[in-house]
Amino acid sequence: MSEKKLISVVIPTYNEEDNVVPMTKTLTAIFQKELPAYDYEILYIDNHSKDNTRKLLRGLCEQDKHVKAIFNARNFGQMRSPVHGLKQAYGDCVVRLNADFQDPPELIPSLVHEWERGHKIVIGIKDKTEEGRFMAWARRRYYKLLAKITDIGHIENFTGFGLYDKAFVDVVRKIQDPMPYLRGMIAELGYDYQTLPYERPQRRAGKSKNNFYSLYDVAMVGITSYSKVVLRLATFLGFMVGALSILVAVVYLIMKFMHWNRFTAGVAPLVIGQFFLGGIQLFFIGLLGEYILAINQRVLGRPLVVEEERLNFDDNQPVTE
Question: How do beta strands 5-13 and 38-46 pair?
Fold first, then answer.
């Protein structure tokens, strides 16, 4: 009799004391009742929580050897920690979901079914969401912008929730990028993926850790990692503004020659022109700074995270940077 296939579930946490216990119970029930033909492991990677999340995870690991935990030495951000957790999972496939129940664990059997049909990647796509109208509008505009300025097909309404075959995870393990952008990796690395629409509910408990700065950080990583159009736009815009300036100068000169005593340009055009050019320069200087920051972080070659402790891992299981 062949061994059961192993399904790894990777769950990043940060201050999720109200969610880790019910999430573990929910996942255990799903695997025991709906997926009994598979072995499973639940891998939590905690991003240095300040509440009782770690204490609860220790208790869960003591009670059930299917539960594993990685404790980060500090908070390494919402992009780096989940990808590091993905790299530490060695199941035949890996399911990635959040601990707040906004990624419905009840969809895991459907993800596994699509995987067994031959799809290497099965991702959840938010069909509907409970977020505010402004955030929903801003996300749509961001995805459309990415589609226009990047060379790869970015996936709209995708947060990382999905199932990834071991073959894809092995590819991710080889990528040494301290600023990983999972959505871009999936679109770039060439595996065909199957989508599974779902309605994303409100958080079951706790507060969202996202704010404007964290969302802006993710957005800029997506742009600087996969787009060169915005930098070339500075060159094109500079050429057009220069040509327009020459045209305006010629028109003013002609008007002055034709109406020497009556034509007075004044200082308004100079002031407007200065502010316009200054705004363009500041915008592209800031954008150039984002690219330089991305280059600097990658050149330094820092690890994704620094682990403080591991629970329920085999001694012979490798630690992937």
Answer: parallel
Amino acid of residue 286: G
Burial (0-12, 13-18, 19+ Cβ within 10 Å), 106:
exposed
Burial of 296 (0-12, 13-18, 19+ CB in 10 A): exposed
Task: Please write the tens of the pLDDT for every residue from 98-131.
Answer: 998 989 999 999 999 999 999 999 998 887 655 5
Tokens of 236: 């094109």
pLDDT tens, residue by residue, 270-317: 666 777 777 777 777 777 777 777 777 777 767 888 899 999 888 767
Using CA atoms, how far residue 185 sits from 3, 46, 169, 177, 282, in Å, is 31, 23, 11, 11, 31
Strand order in the sheet with 93-96: 193-200, 121-129, 162-165, 93-96, 5-13, 38-46, 67-72, 307-311
Q: Which residue from 230, 220, 234, 228 is spatially nearest to 151, judged by alpha carbons?
A: 228
| pTM confidence score | 0.77
Rounded CA separation 194/121 (Å):
6
Q: In the prediction, which pLDDT does 1 show?
A: 45
Q: What is the CA radius of gyration of the chain?
A: 25
